[in-house]
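To the structural biology subgroup,

Please find below the input and predicted structure for Glycine cleavage system H protein, which we are adding to the shared reference set this quarter. The sequence is reproduced verbatim from the submission form. If anyone notices a discrepancy with their own records, reply to this email rather than editing the shared folder directly, so we keep one authoritative version.
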Amino acid sequence: MSAAARVARPFASRALAQKLPLSSVRRVSPAMGFPRGTIRTFSQSPFLEVKKYTESHEWVELSDDGKTAKVGITEYAAKSLGDVVFVELPETGLEVSAGEPVGAVESVKSASDVLSPVSGTVVQPNAILEDKAKFINESPEGDAWIAEIEVSDASEADGLLDEAAYKATIDEE
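Predicted structure (tokenized):
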């Protein structure tokens, strides 16, 4: 190592270890490294808030475009009913209004209507439940939905409960 390097090295190490005042540091936005227009921004559709709930223990999950929705019963309702033995599914093309029955669920304990949280036309019932009604106990808020509905007014879902509000109503019972 040269004599000059041996002399400069301790000073360089001290200089690098010192904290510089922030006013002397040039702040650079991360966007400065990207060509204009290539920065991706992320937004969330209001429909991606996904499930909404009713006080009568049904849920509705709107599609991304808000044109269709799946309707089913909540996990709480499935547990309250007990072992489901039969599910009455709606006919394709059935027109329903919010609050009207879209099907029924029968268990060893009782039977209960499934009320539609939104208005629209039934696109398809869940064929899995025709052969395996018990599936509603396994996945009530998943693949065991009752019907898919073509929604006539997606804004009806705005008046329904979000998950936190729904859980608060369950805790009161």
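Summary notes: The beta strands are 51-53, 58-62, 68-73, 84-88, 95-96, 101-107, 111-115, 120-125, 147-151. DSSP finds five helices and nine strands in the chain.

Regards,
Lab coordination
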